[in-house]
Specification:
mainly alpha; 3% strand
């Protein structure tokens, strides 16, 4: 239990301290500013990642997916299905453990069942929040 709390604290610390900020080049040459640092605007560069990614059969990803958003939506859908299947297995496994177990095993199975049900509720809440956002904004996020 202590390891989980420590892991949570470390993850939160890293999330709040490792901010991504824009990088500016420093002009330290002797011409003009006398070594004074100044911010230089850097233009955005697009990297066509869909040109570089190739599926197993050699088909470029850009021929299968219209945009990166389509690919991310598919990945999120697959993760939701995998998480739902995993939670189902946890609930079934905890049910069998509750039937067969005694004492500490029964308590451990009850904790597993409770954790799986909380995870399922969180997952369904996230899905329905995305549905509500889609309905209110009219933006298709791929959660149909």
């Amino acid at each position: 239990m202590m390891k989980n709390k420590l892991l949570l604290v470390v993850c939160l610390f890293l999330a709040f301290t490792l901010n991504v900020s824009p990088i500016f080049a420093a002009d330290t040459s002797d011409s003009g500013g006398g070594g004074v640092q100044s911010q230089v605007d850097v233009e955005a560069v697009e990297i066509p990642i869909s040109d570089k990614l190739v599926l197993k059969d050699g088909t470029p990803v850009k021929e299968v997916f219209n945009s990166t958003d389509d690919m991310i939506n598919l990945i999120v859908k697959v993760i939701f299905v995998a998480a739902g299947f995993f939670l189902f297995l946890m609930i079934v496994g905890a049910g069998f453990a509750m039937i067969a177990g005694q004492g500490k095993d029964k308590d451990k199975a009850k904790t597993t069942m409770t954790s799986a049900l909380i995870g399922l509720v969180i997952m369904l809440a996230a899905y329905w929040i995305m549905q509500i956002i889609q309905l209110l904004t009219g933006i298709n996020m791929g959660f149909n």
